[in-house]
Amino acid sequence: MIRLGVLASGGGTNLQALLDACAARRVDAEVALVVANVPGAGALARAEAAGVPSLLLPSKGVERAEYDARLAERLAGAGVDLVCLAGFMRLLSPGFIEAFGPTAQSRGCPRVMNVHPGLLPSFPGLKAQAQCLAYGARFAGCTVHFVDQGVDTGPIIAQAVVPVLPEDDEAALTARILAEEHRIYPQAVGWFAAGRLSVEGRRVRVAGAAVPARGLSSPHD
Ligand code: GAR
């Protein structure tokens, strides 16, 4: 069973999805530490409710490399195998990414994952859902990817697609995407925990996973 460190800045619904998947044994992992960088983040209350160790490490006004060194130290101290960004609204420094780089035990996979509310490489960065609506895309979705030193640029592990409906506003689209995040993030973490992921260049292989037979179109009759 691997040990997860989950980093969050907000409400923590993705943290909850991971906690639930671990508790139900759908994922062979346990959440060893939750770290929030924003006081009052809902993720802290969720960790407490689940009886999981948590830590508030405020980032405001702290220099990035110094903050990330403290963060890496706490995660390593908790014996974390995989760091999961779950609405963690900060960029991580190269030093942090290196500290959680590939090991023999991770089968060469990086050890930081993120979930992003957009179909990368479209709409990286902040407010992906608003970017998607403003662009007029027919489909939106979410991406689980390994984290590299760029912004939302690391190798893609899983994606899920949702339609953009004519009446959508940002809140409606965000909710539809979030439901898919809650499904594919635990799935991707489960694959990592089971040693099913490997990375070849930018392409992530998932041993034994199914793929869709054909495409979708929208609008359609
Ligand atoms: C999620 O939609 C996640 O994809 C997004 O923040 C939300 C956090 O929700 N992350 C990013 O935009 C990172 N660039 P949560 O706190 O309820 O899990």
UniProtKB/TrEMBL annotation:
Enzyme Commission code: 2.1.2.2
Domain Formyl transferase N-terminal: 3-189
Site (described: Raises pKa of active site His): D152
Catalytic class of the enzyme: transferase
Keywords per UniProt: Purine biosynthesis, Transferase
Annotated metabolic or biological route of this protein: Purine metabolism; IMP biosynthesis via de novo pathway; N(2)-formyl-N(1)-(5-phospho-D-ribosyl)glycinamide from N(1)-(5-phospho-D-ribosyl)glycinamide (10-formyl THF route): step 1/1
Pfam families membership: Formyl_trans_N
InterPro entries found in the cross-reference section: Formyl_transf_N, Formyl_transf_N_sf, GART
Matching HAMAP family: PurN
Family under the similarity heading: Belongs to the GART family.
Protein name from the UniProt record: Phosphoribosylglycinamide formyltransferase
Organism: Anaeromyxobacter paludicola
Lineage of source species: Bacteria, Pseudomonadati, Myxococcota, Myxococcia, Myxococcales
